[in-house]
Amino acid sequence: MPHLNPEYGIAVAAALWLSLAIDRWLGEPPAPLHPVVWMGNYLGWIGAQVAPQPSHEQRTDLPMFFIGALTWCVGAACVWGVAMALQTLVAQWLPLWAMALGLGLLLKPLFAWRMLRDEVLAVEAALAVSLDDGRRQLARLVSRDVSRLSEREVRESAIESLAENLNDSLVAPVFWFVLLGLPGAALYRFANTADAMWGYRGERNGREWTWLGKWAARADDMLSWVPARLTVLLLALAAWRWPAGLCAEARRTPSPNSGWPMATMALLLGVRLAKPGVYALNAEGRAPSAADMQRTAQLGERAALALGLFATLAIVATSGWRWA
Question: Which of 85, 113, 140, 141 has the greatest CB tally within 10 Å of its CB?
Fold first, then answer.
C-alpha cells in the first residue's frame, strides 16, 4: 500500500479481515459474478482463437510468443484499470466504514482459501468410499491424469495441491494487496489464471501452448517468487519448527516456486510427495495417511491466520500508525 493516514490504514486492515471472514463463512461468489471467472473467460477465448494446432516440429515461434505477451498485457492492463477505478471509487467517495466494507467485498473473490481446503479434504472423504471416487475428486484439483494413481499417489497429489495453492490462492494475492492495493491482488490473480490456462509446454486439449503461454508462465514465476518463500515461513510458524533440508528439496521441482511450499509441507509432515517421472520430495519419507491430510489442512489454517496478522501489521505500519 502507498503511505496512508492512520485511519485509512485501519480501514484497509479491516477490509482484509472482512474478506477473510467472508471466505471462511460464505466461500466463493456465484460464477457469473466472479472476477476470476471473467479473467478465465477472456483467456479461454484468446486461447481458442490463436493457440496453434499441435505440430511435431520443434521450432522457435516468436510471433506466437509476442501474441501471447501482447494479449496477456492487454488483459492485465484491463484488470489493473478496473481494480484501480473500483478502489479509487470506494476510497474517495465513501466514509471509512463503508470503504472497509466495499474493499473487503471486492478483495474476497481474489483469493480462495476455504474452497481449496474443502476440496482437498473432500479427496480424503472420497477415498474413504473408493479409490475411483478419490481419483474423481482429485481431478477437480489437478491437471495431471489421475486415472492410474494409487491411493498413496492420490493423497500425495492432494497435499501437494494444498501446499502449492496456499501460495497461489491466498498468500500471493494478499501479499500483492498489501503492497499495491486491490489492483495488485487483481493483477496477480490474472497472472496466475493465465499461467494455469496457458503455461504449458507442448500439447494440451488439442492445442500447442509452448510459445503462446511462455510469457504468462514467466510472469507468474516472477510475481510468485517472494510469496512462495513467504509461504514457507508461514508454514514453519504454523508447525513451530523449521523444515530441515528445505533448500535441497525445494530445488527438485522444475518450477522455481512451487517446490518451496510443497517441500516444506513434505518435510513438516515427514511424508514423501512425488510426481512420477518428474520429482520426489523428501523421498525417504513415509506414505501419507488420512491423518496427514487433516494435518495439512490444519497447518494451512494456521498459516492463513498468521498471514492475516502479518498483513495487518504491514498495512498499519505503512499507514504511519503508532501504537499508544
Answer: 113
Cα distances from 197 to residues 58, 107, 192, 212, 248, in angstroms, run 21, 22, 9, 11, 29
Taking the CA atoms of residue 217, residue 218, residue 222 and residue 223 in that order, the dihedral angle to the nearest 10 degrees is -30
Show the cell assigned to 195. 499461467
β-sheet bridge partners, residue 281:
273
The alpha carbon of 220 is separated from its chain's Cα centroid by a whole number of angstroms, namely 10
Q: According to the model, what pLDDT value does residue 51 have?
A: 87
Identify whether the C-beta of residue 177 lies closer than 8 Å to the C-beta of residue 185: yes
* Residue pair 82/229 in contact by the 8 Å Cβ criterion: no
DSSP β-ladder status, 279-281 and 207-208: unpaired
Let me know if residue 85 belongs to a domain. yes
Q: Does 324 map to a domain? A: no
Read off the pLDDT of each residue in 135-147 and give the average, rounded to a whole number: 90
Angle at which helix 259-269 crosses helix 151-166, to 10 degrees, equals: 120
The confidence score (pLDDT) of residue 197 equals: 94
**Lookup result for grid cell 512420477:** 276
- Tens of pLDDT, residue by residue over 52-74, are 888 754 577 888 999 999 999 99
pLDDT digits over 6-30, tens only? 788 899 999 999 999 999 999 999 9
User: What sign does the dihedral 249-254-256-259 (CA atoms) show?
Assistant: negative
Cell of 246: 528445505
The count of structural domains within the chain is 1
CB atoms within 10 A of CB 252: 16
Q: How confident is the model at residue 321 (pLDDT cuts 50, 70, 90)?
A: very low
For 139, the domain range is 6-52+60-318
Which segments within the chain are labelled E, that is strand?
203-204, 207-208, 273-275, 279-281
Q: Report the chain's mean pLDDT, rounded to a whole number.
A: 93
**In a domain? residue 125:** yes
